[in-house]
Amino acid sequence: MNELLIIVLAGFTTGITTVLFGFGGGFVVVPFIYQLLMRQPLLAGNAMHIAVATSTAVMIFNAGWVSYQNWQAGRLSSTVLFPLLWFIATGAVVGSWLAGM
């Protein structure tokens, strides 16, 4: 029961900080997931990588979905969007390389 309460409080804190301050996902969820994974002996060695990757995957999904909705509504120009994809891909490759150092 205590673990469930901690998970609910982490979700509540994430929602409140996101709504009030504009941040919350990475700020609250990454340390929470990290602490959760450190309790698992098999995952403890890669806990930070998994926590950051999980948070990043959620952000990529959310940004992609909102971008798609804006494109469908005609509020996003493909001449602006597609050149940015190169920067996104480059950042992903460089970040992955730096994380492996």
From TrEMBL:
Topological type in the membrane: Multi-pass membrane protein
Hydrolase is among the record's keywords: no
Predominant subcellular localization, coarse grouping: membrane
Cellular-component GO terms for this entry: plasma membrane
Keywords: Cell membrane, Membrane, Transmembrane, Transmembrane helix
Transmembrane segments: 6-34, 46-68, 80-100
Location(s) in or outside the cell: Cell membrane; Membrane
Organism domain of life: Bacteria
Family classification: Belongs to the 4-toluene sulfonate uptake permease (TSUP) (TC 2.A.102) family.
Protein name: Probable membrane transporter protein
